[in-house]
Design a protein that fits this description.
The structure holds 3 protein chains of 3 kinds. By secondary structure, chain B is an alpha/beta fold. Chain B has 8 helices and 6 strands. By secondary structure, chain C is of the alpha/beta class. Chain C has a single domain, classed as Rossmann fold (3-Layer(aba) Sandwich), CATH 3.40.50. Classes of the chains: A alpha/beta, B alpha/beta, C alpha/beta. Chains in contact: A-B, B-C.
Chain lengths: 179, 173, 193
């Protein structure tokens, strides 16, 4: 059976801008690489903790923070490559059931810092299905602006843990150094 | 049955006194009792991991959120944490690891030997202060000392509990 | 005789945006007890480095007054630094030495100043022309404007009673205090380099 794969039309910076428009006092963890540049360029903030190493650790770092601060919402922004390296951490999160926890993967299906090699998501590995499989409360792949709008509300207020694999185009956005 | 207080119970008290609130682990037979004590205690959030490096990152997040934690693992798991140690190293997160050793004393499984022999060198290479508890009676005071170095000194510290101190278990049980 | 806490609090009243470096021991507690401040850099662990550390800051921040508050034992351990300061003459550096004549943190053993070693004399001989001895409240009040306004380098040995003061919670995480100090001192610096 052949399934039509939607075309990727969303661009990463506008996606991050849209999501972070509504931020208030949420705590953000960003995975190394492009997500760190994206968040820093759109919304540098004292409540952001940027990872520049420890690939695979973004979700786990966010979990430790979410467990320590149950009254605060924790958002983890990361990339597909980084998420794949810490895939098991999704299971660890699901077992803990943190209500205050959201993961947003900016999925361009590429390892951005090392020459744009394809990641597993380029070959059909479905991250949101993995998240659903381990037991995330909500887990969806986002392809369109409408889906993104709907997801944005959930990111801030849905009972967690929630997971969004946002398919974004490959691009060459300027690498803004977070301060 | 009256049992003498095990090292695990003493270490559990040390962790409670140090106000540890998150305990992460990949289950290990040597840590069985300590893990159970943490699971049964409401004031500690116990986090079973799919791989040990998650624990390093988790405890960084915990510290960012104001809480102390500890990572319990077997020596084989140390191999899984090496790169993730860059994060607490660079960011100066306190880190307490309690490692049950394999591959060094009456080890029946040769596959445990490589990592068992490499634990101390690899941890030290990443800047971790390594303390060893070579006998059962020294375990809890070593963990206590390590917790002070970690939480009051702001350092990465690992306590290696010697395989000899754990006793020769019959793994076939 | 002057009580160390009161003397230090009095000195710090007019600090405004001066940077303060403290020497290991009682001086850190004296300064912290007046209120922790991002422009305080508390040194721990090593004797003898306070004056030079403050000097480095003074060179980097020519528009800002830098005050180092330390003890007689600590200054004695780095006595050569007075010569370095005396030769370079940083005009924005003030050195306050609280002289209680004992090593406070180690059981109160007498320091060399108890046997007559004259720190003011050494400072003047090292080239720090503005070196004074303060023995009482009047002397302190007279000296105060000079700490902050007189072109330095300035050194004041403040004789204080050996009576110890309660220890306070001084931040001991050097990474934290160093970066906090650095970022307070220069709003533009956000990174290692």
């Amino acid at each position: 059976m052949s399934i039509a794969i939607p075309k990727i039309t969303l661009a990463r910076r506008p996606v991050v801008t849209k999501i972070l428009e509504s931020r208030k006092d949420e705590l953000l963890i960003t995975g190394l690489g492009a997500p760190t540049w994206d968040v820093a360029s759109v919304s540098d903030h004292q409540n952001n903790f940027y990872l520049w190493g420890g690939m695979g650790g973004a979700v786990s770092t966010g979990l430790g923070l979410a467990l320590a601060k149950p009254e605060r919402r924790v958002l983890v922004f990361t990339g597909d490559g980084e998420m794949l390296m810490g895939l098991g951490s999704l299971a660890t999160v699901a077992v803990q059931k943190p209500k205050n926890f959201a993961v947003i993967v900016l999925d361009n299906e590429r390892y951005g810092e090392t020459g744009m090699q394809k990641t597993a998501t380029a070959s059909g590995v479905d991250l949101s299905l993995v998240a659903r499989g381990v037991g995330f409360h909500i887990a969806r792949t986002i392809w369109t602006l409408d889906e993104l709008s709907e997801a944005t509300n959930e990111i801030y207020s849905a009972h967690g843990p929630v997971f969004y694999d946002v398919k974004v185009q490959r691009s060459d956005d300027p690498m803004v150094l977070p301060e | 049955m009256v049992e003498s207080v095990s090292w695990s119970d003493k270490v559990f008290s040390v962790l409670c006194e140090a106000e540890v609130k998150q305990v992460a682990y990949v289950p290990d037979a040597g840590h069985q009792r300590l893990i159970k004590l943490c699971i049964d205690y409401n004031e500690i959030k116990h986090v079973p991991l799919t791989s040990e490096q998650e624990g390093i990152a988790l405890l960084g997040g915990a510290w960012l959120g104001g809480e102390r934690g500890a990572l319990l693992m077997q020596s084989s798991g140390v191999g899984n944490v090496i790169n993730m140690l860059s994060v607490p190293n660079e960011c100066r997160f306190p880190l307490l690891m309690i490692v049950t050793m394999r591959g060094e004393w009456a080890e029946f499984n040769p596959w445990q030997i490589p990592m068992g022999q490499a634990v101390e060198t690899t941890l030290k290479a990443m800047g971790v202060i390594v303390l060893r508890a070579a006998e059962e009676c020294l375990i809890s005071e070593t963990v206590s000392s390590a917790s002070k170095l970690a939480f009051e000194g702001g350092r990465m510290v690992a306590v290696l509990i010697s395989q000899r101190a754990l006793g020769q278990k019959d793994w076939n049980k | 005789m002057l009580f160390r806490r009161d003397a230090v609090h009095k000195i710090l009243e007019k600090r405004e945006n001066s940077a303060v470096v403290t020497g290991i021991g009682n001086a850190s507690h004296d300064v912290a007890s007046a209120g922790d401040h991002p422009l305080n850099m508390y040194l721990f662990g090593v004797m003898g480095g306070a004056v030079m550390t403050a000097f480095g800051v003074a060179l980097a921040q020519p528009e800002r007054r830098v005050v180092v508050i330390t003890g007689d034992g600590e200054v004695l351990a780095g006595i050569g630094s007075l010569a370095t300061v005396g030769v370079e003459r940083p005009s924005n550096l003030s050195i306050i030495v609280l002289d209680n004549q004992v090593y406070g943190a180690t059981g109160g053993q007498l320091t060399h100043t108890a046997a007559g070693v004259d720190l003011v004399g050494i400072a003047r001989a090292s080239g720090i022309v503005n070196s004074v001895l303060i023995k009482d409240q009047k002397g302190l009040e007279r000296a105060l404007p000079e700490v902050y306004e007189k072109p330095g380098p300035y050194l004041a040995v403040v004789e204080v009673s050996p009576q110890s003061a309660p220890r306070v919670d001084v931040p001991k995480d050097g990474t934290f205090t160093a970066r906090r100090f650095r970022s307070a001192i220069n709003q533009e610096i956000k990174d290692h380099g």
